[in-house]
Amino acid sequence: MKIFDAHSDVLYKMWMDPTIDFANSSKLHINYDRLKASGSKVQSFAIYIPEQIKPESRFEVALEMVEIFYNKVVASSPLLKVVRTKEDILGLKEEEIGAFLTLEGCDAIDQSIVKLQTLLRLGVSSVGLTWNYANFVADGVGEPRGAGLSSFGIEVVKEHNKASIWTDVSHLSLKGFWDVMEVADYPIASHSNAMAICNHRRNLLDEQIQALIKKNGMIGITFVPQFLSNRETATIDDVIKHLDYICSFGGENHVGFGSDFDGITDTTIGLENFSGYEGLVNKLLKYYSEIQVKKFLYQNFVANLPA
């Protein structure tokens, strides 16, 4: 079955270790060989700027990751094609895989709309406003003051609306989330789970799940063990519990997957790398119809993309 994975940190890992070969490196959870073998149709590649990077260097590091995306990931992978829109994805040939560039946190743009516009011109098609901490756009979930969108942050979200791209609320403070719901035309949570199932600050309250569904947004269930289970380990069954829970709010058409592969050290049992999607698909088919499983894996995210 076709898979749309809404979040990975391949670019960050390759930036940290320039010796990694995207084709088949065992250092990566996601590589070209695994994508080809395991049903990938659209894979998201996030630009994530590590906290230790000095503010004056963050935009340059973002550009370096863009170069990795185009020159070391796409150019070296014959079946990978850059996709930005729903039309691009629907136009992929049967054997082709879409590569979807995203931004995880607006630290790289400082206080500059021009820097944001530049990244959008370079292909970024979904923007997460924060990582866990504060920037000039908003506070993340780890910032004690818990502030919402700044005036600049509102300008950033309006720029996303103008460009018809997703505004990603994963990692965002609670106040920031509700501010986004007021301003964003195309909100998603690319890699967040249900707090009622696993009490982690990165997960979504029931009210947030309902708001995203009402706003015709998407929730990408992530495979981070700490976001799936309150136990020390997590399994594919835990992934399905979160899926079931979101569906219980009428979210059948608003839920998919955002693995966070290559952004995590610990992995869920059965989902140690992208190849684990096969086991997830088989498990899903025990509980849901083939039509529903196709929606969860691929169709919901594609349908949610701005036209």
UniProtKB/TrEMBL annotation:
Q: Which CDD domains match?
A: rDP_like
Q: Which organism is it from?
A: Fredinandcohnia salidurans
Quote the InterPro entries the UniProt record gives.
Metal_Hydrolase, Pept_M19
- Put simply, this protein is called Dipeptidase
Higher taxonomy: Bacteria, Bacillati, Bacillota, Bacilli, Bacillales
SUPFAM superfamilies, per this entry?
Metallo-dependent hydrolases
